[in-house]
Amino acid sequence: MPKFQAERLRQWGTAMLDAIGSPHERSAWVMETLLNANLAGHDSHGFMRLLQYIEFARGGYIDMSAEVLTLRETGATALLDAQRTWGQVAAKLAMERAIEIAARQGISMAALVNCPHIGRLGEYVVMATERDMIATAYVNSQTGGDGSVVPWGGIDGRFTPTPLAFAAPSGLDFPVLVDITASVMPEGKVRDHLFRGAQLPEDVIIDAEGKPTRDPKDFYGPPAGGLLPLGGPVGHKGYALGVMIEMLAGGLSGAGYVSEAAVTHGNGVLFQVMNIAAFEDVDQFKRRTRELIAHVKSSQPRAGVDEVLFPGEPEYRSAQRRQQDGIELPDSLWRAFCDLAAEMGVDL
User: Fold this and answer.
1) Count of CB atoms situated within 10 Å of the CB of 293
2) Can you tell me whether residue 95 is helix, strand or coil?
3) Would you call 2 helix, strand, or coil by DSSP?
4) Could you tell me which residues come within 8 angstroms of residue 10 by beta carbon, excluding any fewer than 6 positions away?
5) Which of 30, 50, 140, 317 falls 20 to 30 Å from 58 in CA-CA distance?
């Protein structure tokens, strides 16, 4: 597999987005979020999404120059309309608004509707930690009733891999970061296995008949299979978590549920920000958090494990390593990227 420095991929990707008519600053921000995902070790939300985004933009699902509108604002809440512009652009603005409100009110919530795919949630919740705040995020998708995640006990997809994220400052080199889905694995990681020609772990997907399989081709079909809810033998917990996220991100925001008819390839988004200083001394909070991290990491590693890591630490270490060593792209992804660049007249 070819390997590239992040800056090189950023330049190529930005040029391709510029070539389809995206304003340059927006192109650059979209690529920054994608490459940050690669650096953090989450290739599922990284460079490979560029091909999908260009397809969506060409298909009219993304209005690359649209301005984000404020539909409603109260003392502690804001509802924003992305107007189908780049999801990453709208999500950044929504988190910035939530942070501004929390600075005044102590706590805030900001929701997004009419919003294309926003990428990795960790990108946005970490923004709050840079202002000594805590953030959570919830996202659903509108797919016209089709879903890739099966409910507990079912074999037909009814949900999307609803993600949630949490971030808090630690006073260390990395923030505490939780960025997960209510399914065993996000769809993007299945797609990454497909690009790499790799088998999935056990108990991640089922085929169209409900039988366990490790072949990512069985997930995409046709006929399509499904992702299992988080939790393995107690998957009813991941199923319930997915329902909660669906209702917060799709229902409370007004963006709509996965069961509704419209197919927008978009996200309903809900951000919550808590200003630590409104509740606790910031330095005290960070000190206690560092003590918690040290306490957890002092657990003796079990056989085959080198070190107990704390949430947020794997992403930090991956970024340190990949900034130095570069980012690997599967051969099939690189070929597809080269073909598209040639078609668009973008030099690599």
Assistant:
1) 20
2) helix
3) coil
4) 28, 31, 32, 35
5) 140
- Report the CATH fold assignment for 1-62+331-348: Hypothetical Oxidoreductase Yiak; Chain: A, domain 1 (1.10.1530)
pLDDT digit string, tens, across residues 246-272: 999 999 999 999 988 666 668 999 999
In this structure, which topology does domain 66-184+228-290 adopt according to CATH? Ribosomal Protein S8; Chain: A, domain 1 (3.30.1370)
pLDDT in tens, 166-196: 999 999 999 999 999 999 998 889 988 998 8
Tell which residue, 46, 315, 33, 305, has the closest CA to residue 170: 315
* Burial class, 299, CB count within 10 angstroms (exposed 0-12 / middle 13-18 / buried 19+): exposed
- For the chain, the distance separating the N- and C-terminal CA atoms, rounded to the nearest angstrom, is 17
Which alpha helices (DSSP H) does 275-327 contain, by range? 282-297, 313-325
Decide: 189 and 44 in contact? Cβ < 8 Å. yes
Count CB neighbours of 304 within 10 A. 5
Residue 283 burial (CB < 10 Å; 0-12/13-18/19+)? exposed
d(CA 143, CA 49): 18
Nearest alpha carbon to residue 30 among 44, 43, 13? 13
Indicate the burial class of 128 (C-beta count within 10 angstroms; 0-12, 13-18, 19 or more). Answer: buried
Q: Domain map of the chain by residue range?
A: 1-62+331-348, 66-184+228-290
pTM tops 0.85, yes or no: yes
